[in-house]
């Protein structure tokens, strides 16, 4: 299959603080970012650079440090340490990239100490806090993209457009890219820019990511077997990357887009690269706090309606500004007329006094002798 690359497209940056307050212009931007190409991309940056939202990433340094401690262990130790004491299941995997994946139900306050490997125990509280925030962020985005639907399970058993089922758990995935220098055999040493694995898509509602280097390419188009891919997308300061999954695409009948992506080797031979991925799947798609009263989101069919409403608001704003300008001009004219009349009155008084008369207090210029 032929392929070619383009410079990464104009990725929208959505302000999370405005999303929280249901700013209509920001909701429209969010919805447009999630449309299929060429109108949207299915992914966007979520801007957290506001006092009320910057706390979302405050624990990342400690989490990444503990993630590094885990993945810097010998392979055998990683495998052994990756077994959950809570469930007995293996959480360590090494496919496209190395990862340690936890179902979110294993990270609640009653299970987290048994689920985390020893090297991650120092970051237990930061991970728990961080996961709580990520769940709220994910539900906020979901409820803004789709008005609260039937929480009894419209999504259960839904086969996605790619023929896969969504019966999976929401999960937090701690990821690591090994330094090239750690590779024992030269044939295993990928070079910077090489693909790591094949094309993938997110299984679930949406995925939230943090990464520190350009490591993802996105498929922009596929026509007659020829694929067009973006260049590796660099991270944006103070932002998390969000992309939709097959669940959201299926739920909206294809009106929203689940993009295809692939991992790219980063030129980082001396140090590993830590990152995380949180995936919201149907089990948590309606969290308890995401009630209909608290949610004021939009669905794709409302985009045009909101754009019309925004245009009307802008028109009204322009009319108000014009009216304000007219009033200010009238006030200035009135003030000038008053000053002119006052000056005329003073001149009249001086003239009358010089003749031994007296000026009237009336504004018609009549005299009282």
From TrEMBL:
<keyword id="KW-0175">Coiled coil</keyword>
<feature type="coiled-coil region">
    <location>
        <begin position="303"/>
        <end position="330"/>
    </location>
</feature>
<protein>
    <submittedName>
        <fullName>Uncharacterized protein</fullName>
    </submittedName>
</protein>
<dbReference type="InterPro" id="IPR027443">
    <property type="entry name" value="IPNS-like_sf"/>
</dbReference>
